[in-house]
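It is worth pausing here to work through a concrete case rather than discussing structure prediction in the abstract. The textbook approach is simple: state the sequence, then state the predicted structure, then interpret. We follow exactly that order.
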Amino acid sequence: MPRANPIVLTTPPLLAMVPQRTPEAAVHARVDAWVDAWSSEACPNDMEALRPLLGAGRLNMMSDFGSDIAVSDSFNSYQSVWMPVLQDTFRSWQLAIASDVEIRTSASLASAAYFTLFEGETHEGTTMVQRQAVSAVWEMQSGEWRLVQEHTSVDSEGRMA
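Step two, the predicted structure:
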């Protein structure tokens, strides 16, 4: 005999209070992790701290220094562009987000656009600060957002922030 009042399954009240992580929040967390790993503390001799955030397969990484452009299609080539510049020029360095992070997501791709400030202390003891425009594409791989493309442009030919 059918029941007059069917049983309705609902989310338990305690579980309903736990905020659900949106795709945008998950991508923002990955952007934060990428920026945090871009420091002399996290990457003193190599950039291995960045590797877990990168996608599998071919990468598209473009670094626009104004008068020079470096294109990397793998983690190793990206590291071979950046580590000599960092180690030959700076005693210490760090990167910080300097704007809102604009994120758009679909089921398997996300884009993030933002500005950063790169700050480094040179071997001579002077401080350099550069503003950079960053656009990044993240792809859902094995249940995680992974960076597959990045375009970084130094603001106005390297002008200080």
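Step three, interpretation. Confidence is low (pLDDT under 50) at residues 157-161. Residues 24-154 form a domain with the Nuclear Transport Factor 2; Chain: A, fold (CATH 3.10.450.50).
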